[in-house]
Amino acid sequence: xxVRLLLLCAGATEATRAARFPAPGVxxxxxxxxxxxxxxxxxxxxxxxxxxxxxxxxxxxxxxALSAVDEPALADQDAGAWRGRAxxxxxxxxxxxxxxxxxxxxxxxxxLEAVRARVGAWLDPLAARGEGRWLAVTHAAVIRAALAHAxxxxxxxxxAIDVAPLATVALSFTDRWRLRELRRGGxxxxx
Length: 191
Hints:
Layout: E1 3-9, H1 14-17, H2 30-38, E2 48-51, H3 55-63, E3 68-70, H4 92-100, H5 112-129, E4 132-138, H6 140-151, E5 168-173, E6 177-183
Parallel strand pairs: 1-4, 2-3, 2-4
Antiparallel strand pairs: 1-5, 5-6
């Protein structure tokens, strides 16, 4: 049997548009909410749905009328001391160090490798079940970490993958994880 997993990136927020580091309580902005409401998931809308604990992910699931269960493993990457801060407000030296190796994470925050381990611990039992259709509403960093884990990629390599709001990544598992599709996001994200 095959496991199918559609990872949906949460809708846009004002923080997304302002290039600020993520913060858990940030809501979808009006434009982001409108785009979520225009989204069509097709058959995936009836799959078992899990959602990251952040407000933007929950609001995305709610706007799509999904019956979703909270999944802490899908929480966004913790930005530590930089939570909610814009790039322009950061000290130049710290920003330069982070820019040289962003996979290490923000000061006091979570590395992308730690996110990969957390997400991998969620993905592996899903694959072991050997069947099922899943929809996960989460965030760009989590989607990159899932790709790194599923496809055995270095986490730094996944930073070259654009994961915009409402982008979808379709994975399947039979004997191993496979990338079925990566969509930028838009009105029709059906698998």
